[in-house]
Automatic annotation (TrEMBL), chain A:
Belongs to the leucine-binding protein family. This is Leucine-binding protein domain-containing protein. It comes from the Bacteria. It holds the Pfam family Peripla_BP_6. Residues 1-24 form the signal peptide. Keywords: Signal. It comes from Pararhodobacter oceanensis. InterPro entries: Leu-bd, Peripla_BP_I, TAT_signal. PANTHER family: BLR6548 PROTEIN. Residues 35-368 form the Leucine-binding protein domain.
TrEMBL record, chain B:
Pfam families: BPD_transp_2. This is Branched-chain amino acid ABC transporter permease. One of its GO terms (cellular component) is plasma membrane. Its main location: membrane. GO terms for molecular function: branched-chain amino acid transmembrane transporter activity. It comes from Pararhodobacter oceanensis. It comes from the Bacteria. Coiled coil: none annotated. The chain crosses the membrane at residues 21-41, 47-65, 95-115, 122-143, 170-189, 220-242, 305-323.
Length: 389, 358
């Protein structure tokens, strides 16, 4: 076994030195009865509290596949490492996963910085990277458009642009304003807002930035109001979306607020209560609550609750959905699982379940089409206003 | 027991005073040099990172440990070093020139921060450095042309004399070489006049001033030196990460560096290294610990932070002199085995509050 591993590493190194074009089909982490899959999450950093959902849902999907006999007789062995939300720790985690655990693929790993820092390392070593939770376009750019990288997370810029180009004429908006976060997320949102407005022959009436961690949005909302804005485009995440809406309600101001994909979360509607009533959001996937009528979603929710005792959120649902897509690509690769056969199978695969709006396939290794819906909070839950387009 | 019999003045402050020191450090060096031949690639990569943190930790030690100035913003010097190095390499500057240049740029930034250090000290200095770190993080995010903004920038694979330094084993030697160089430089500096001036300023500014030491210059100089060394670590860190984004250099890294210096033992280079080794391997230890814990506990997130906090609290409570102090006691116990007195290290009455730092 050791000899085998050494040889494999040696051939891998030699192939790397010769150039990527000649890389031998590598199947590290795949043995007769097991496949090693790595996952790195922010278990001890700023977003640690939302990680159990990702880990549990991924574990659940793999567990179900294993219980059903595995993938072509191989059991999935999932290895979770901590990236602490920091690129340097992520590099260590991925080095361990690649060099020590010899994983076949990295799947559902979390964080833009951590994924960006480790992308070259992983794809360079011939490891498949599936569904990184990070800005998809940036990931492809960092990997040098590696064929081994498959992204499933919607691009916030293109989805925001798509939604705005639809609703601004439909709602008759004349003076849109933007509240955005300083940082990569805000950059992405503005990269969607600006071209959308440009194509409509408009420009923003007001822009206001906030710093990550800020909780008071009175000045940003006041600036919007002073500029006579008639649509606030909120490039905000959970807590900030609630805070913006609370401020709007406090001023008793009748203005439309539209948040981007991360803000259209069940948690926003729950946290905000009366404050978030009437908030519009751009939706990138189907939401399911406990009372959902979708059989697939019900099966997932009850299986999750049975295993972990809590109600899964939308991140869990997405992680579960991505994992099932990953599993179907693994099955499609056949008995002879190598990174090449996986890439071919993933490119040929399609995916449609209780989270997606329509059948998705990989176009240039990114899940397409990126459909969006426009939802609105009514009585504490998101209701679809404009069907996915 | 060992009694020194010096026949020359210089023997009193030789770096390695005894033959046994030569032997043990020689063995350590040989082991570190031979390790990449024997160990797995994973372990070699991990140790390379540990060396980078050792350099950064020694950089902060030069400031906090030697001149008694606090800094909560040292991650910004790591960032400046990393970005400067990556940018210079992107402009075609060779690795061997770019790394020292990055250190110089970082040192220049350190001098700028050092100027307020003349006027403020203690908690206020900590605040100034913290503010500086926040400003640097913002500048990195905004200055897209050079740093790539929040989207980040790619770091080129280092090359030296046409040889790629990209492989973990080769990079291990680069990190080891730089770490050894910094260690030797600082150890020598500390037994020179400048080093004595550093210690003088730390223990009593008034006394140092009375003895003709230019206190202000020493303070600013220490900042520059510390920032330069930390920037050197940053340059190597850039290669470790491979793709730079501002979230690699947050307050968490600054706090990690402070932890290393405090847990290692303020005022000693050995402490800086021991602290860096302990803090950088703590996540691995926690990961190993998790497999022994019951599933319900092992699945908790944030265990790493809890353990790091616990280790710090235990050190502050039971071993304020840090790992270095514990090591010195252990060594004294072994050397004087049957004759060890329990009160050997009991603190004597001190007359100046600064003597706490000794």
């Amino acid at each position: 076994m050791t000899m085998n591993r050494r040889q494999m590493l040696a051939t891998g190194a030699a192939a790397l030195a010769m150039g990527s074009g000649l890389r031998a089909a590598r199947a590290a982490g795949v043995s007769a009865d097991a496949i090693n899959i790595g996952m790195h999450l922010d278990l001890s950093g700023p977003t640690a509290s939302s990680m159990p959902m990702l880990r549990n849902a991924t574990e659940l999907a793999f567990g179900q596949a294993n219980a059903a006999g595995g993938v072509h007789g191989r059991q999935i062995n999932m290895i979770v490492e901590d990236n602490a939300g920091q690129p340097q720790q992520a590099v260590r985690a991925v080095q361990k996963l690649i060099r020590s655990d010899e994983v076949f693929a990295l799947h559902n790993s979390f964080g833009s910085g951590p994924n960006a820092a480790t992308m070259g390392l992983a794809t360079g070593a011939g490891v498949v990277v599936f569904a990184p939770w990070a800005a998809s376009a940036v990931m492809h750019q960092v990997s040098g458009n590696s064929p081994l990288l498959f992204t499933t997370v919607q691009n916030y810029n293109t989805t925001t642009q798509r939604a705005l180009e639809r609703v601004i004429p439909e709602w008759g908006v004349e003076r849109p304003g933007v509240i955005y976060m300083e940082g990569p997320y805000g950059d992405l949102i503005r990269a969607g807002v600006n071209p959308a407005l440009e194509s409509l022959g408009m420009s923003t009436a007001e822009e206001a930035a906030y710093r990550p961690g800020e909780i008071d949005f009175s000045s940003q909302v006041a600036r919007m109001r002073a500029a006579g804005v008639d649509l606030i485009i909120a490039g905000t995440i959970i807590r900030e979306t609630v805070a913006v809406m609370a401020e709007v309600k406090k001023l008793d101001w009748d203005v439309k607020v539209l948040c981007a994909i991360p803000g259209r979360s069940t948690m926003v509607a729950q946290l905000g209560g009366a404050d978030t009533e009437g908030l519009y959001g751009i939706g990138g996937w189907q939401l399911h609550g406990a009372e959902t009528s979708n059989a697939e979603a019900q099966a997932f929710i009850s299986a999750y609750q049975e295993a972990y005792g809590t109600m899964p959120d939308e991140n869990a649902a997405n992680a579960y959905s991505y994992t099932n897509w990953f599993l179907s690509a693994l099955r499609g690769a056949g008995e002879d699982l190598t990174s090449d056969s996986f890439v071919a199978a993933a490119r040929a695969s399609g995916h449609n379940d209780f989270t997606t709006y329509t059948e998705q396939t990989f176009v240039d290794n990114h899940a397409m089409p990126e459909m969006v819906s426009i939802d609105r909070v009514v009585d504490g839950t998101w209701e679809q206003q404009i069907a996915p387009f | 027991m060992r009694f020194d019999y010096h026949t020359r003045y210089r023997q009193g402050f030789a770096l390695l005073r005894h033959r046994s020191d030569w032997l043990s450090y020689g063995l350590l060096a040989a082991a570190l040099l031979a390790l990449p031949m024997l160990a797995s690639t994973y372990l070699v990569g991990e140790l390379g990172y540990v060396f980078i943190l050792c350099i950064a930790s020694m950089g902060l030690m030069a400031l906090t440990g030697f001149t008694g100035q606090v800094s909560l913003g040292h991650a910004s010097f790591v960032a400046i070093g990393a970005y400067a190095h990556a940018w210079l390499m992107a402009q075609g500057v060779p690795f061997a020139a770019s790394l020292p240049l990055a250190a110089l740029i970082s040192a220049a930034a350190g001098l700028v921060v050092g100027i307020p250090a003349i006027r403020v000290s203690g908690l206020y200095l900590a605040m100034v450095t913290l503010a500086f770190a926040i400003v640097v993080e913002q500048i990195i995010g905004m200055w897209r042309g050079v740093t790539g903004g929040y989207m980040g920038m790619m770091v080129e694979t280092p090359q030296l004399l046409g040889l790629s330094l990209g492989s973990p084993r080769v990079f291990y030697y680069v990190c080891l070489f730089v770490a050894a160089l910094v260690l030797l430089a600082l150890a020598n500096l500390m037994r020179s006049g400048i080093g004595r001036a550093f210690t003088g300023v730390r223990d009593s500014e008034a006394a140092a001033y009375a003895l003709g030491i230019e206190v202000n210059r020493v303070k600013v100089g220490a900042f520059g030196l510390s920032a330069g060394i930390t920037g050197l670590a940053g340059g190597l860190m850039a290669h470790h990460i491979g793709y730079l984004t501002p979230d690699a250099f947050t307050l968490l890294l600054s706090l990690d560096l402070v932890l290393m210096v405090v847990i290692g033992g303020i005022g000693s280079l050995r402490g800086a290294i021991l602290g860096a080794v302990l803090i950088s391997l703590l996540p691995n230890a926690v990961a190993a610990l998790k497999s022994l814990l019951p599933a319900a506990m092992a699945r908790q997130t944030g265990l790493e932070i809890f353990v790091a906090g616990l280790v710090l609290a235990l050190f502050v409570l039971f071993e304020p002199t840090g790992l270095n102090g514990r090591w010195l006691k252990l060594r004294a116990l072994i050397e004087s085995f049957p004759l060890y007195r329990r009160d050997m290290f009991r603190r004597q009455k001190t007359y100046m509050k600064s003597e706490r730092n000794r």
